[in-house]
Amino acid sequence: MSEITAKILTKVIKKRPSNSHKGNYGRILLIGGNENYGGAIIMAAEAALNSGAGLISVATHPVNLNALHARNPEVMFIDWRDRNLLNLITKMDVIVCGPGLGTNSFAHQMMLTLCQNVSSNQTLVLDANALDLIAQDSKLIPTSAGLIVLTPHQMEWQRLSQIRIPYQTDSANLSALKKIFPTQNVILVLKSNRTHVYTSTNEIFVNTSGNPGMATGGMGDTLAGIIGGFTAQFGGTLDPVLAAIYLHSLAGDKIAETDYVVRPTKISAILPQLMNHYANKG
Ligand SMILES: NC(=O)C1=CN([C@@H]2O[C@H](COP(=O)(O)OP(=O)(O)OC[C@H]3O[C@@H](n4cnc5c(N)ncnc54)[C@H](O)[C@@H]3O)[C@@H](O)[C@H]2O)[C@@H](O)CC1
Ligand SMILES: Nc1ncnc2c1ncn2[C@@H]1O[C@H](COP(=O)(O)OP(=O)(O)O)[C@@H](O)[C@H]1O
Ligand SMILES: [Mg+2]
Questions:
Q1: In total, how many domains does the chain have?
Q2: Quick one: which of 35, 98, 151, 207 could link to 195 by a disulfide (CB 3.0–4.6 Å)?
Q3: pLDDT digit string (tens) for 131-155?
């Protein structure tokens, strides 16, 4: 098992060439946010924006439109019942699905549409309710994405893997991952106070940063957005995922130097400065 350290940030975060534009930094679509959990997808989108994705769209319940645009006018919106969503899905580099999605029949249909239309040049980040839906119906397990990143917390992983939290050992987690996703290129980000990362090629990593001030609703939604932002601009491979995990908890540790509680939106707020620092170091 390897530790994730600050070295991953200088390796992954590059200075931007002058001759570049938004199309070079990835198109990302985030799907989620029902009538009750709009904040989840708004926080994920803000994290994708502040971590540097080139073009960001959100497919959500229309009740969330005003809040989304009032907070981040840079982000594009599509009503998640709009038929054009299918077309948009096929054009994306990265799709993040799940924060605040819910688990009703509409959410189920959304997951089915997504998993039937994703292709091998795309990265799929599945979080929160997307994982709960897969746990309920194995027909929703995508087979054709280039990379699938799963970001469950321990309870979501319990539902998906059937391994109760005290029994979630590295070997049990790896074998469950390979049983559920036998042929896919998958990274499992199993979130806890010491997040472990597992790959379908048997690698295991542990994140040693982060703090209990981060135990605040929306913290995982923010991580999903950063993973989306990093894979959109730095590519759908392992290193950008590890860098996103490390940056998220590094930001949490910086905020915890002065703050008892770490607000997820404060993490997103300091990402651009932190990224600038590591881009100049590398
Ligand atoms: N502002 C918002 O709109 C927010 C919406 N959220 C959404 O709410 C929905 C339900 O997600 P939840 O995760 O709250 O509900 P879950 O029912 O999936 O899990 C939460 C419970 O799992 C247990 N648990 C055990 N180990 C844990 C661990 N290591 N980390 C976290 N929980 C652990 C805790 O008792 C916790 O109350 C999702 O769609 C999620 O995206 C949350 O992200 C919170 C913020
Ligand atoms: N005690 C802690 N120490 C370090 N990190 C923590 C701690 N508690 C929570 N976190 C981090 O916060 C995030 C919580 O994710 P999640 O439970 O999905 O939040 P939400 O669904 O509310 O957005 C994870 O990245 C987890 O590692
Ligand atoms: Mg979560």
A1: 1
A2: 207
A3: 999 999 999 999 999 999 999 999 9
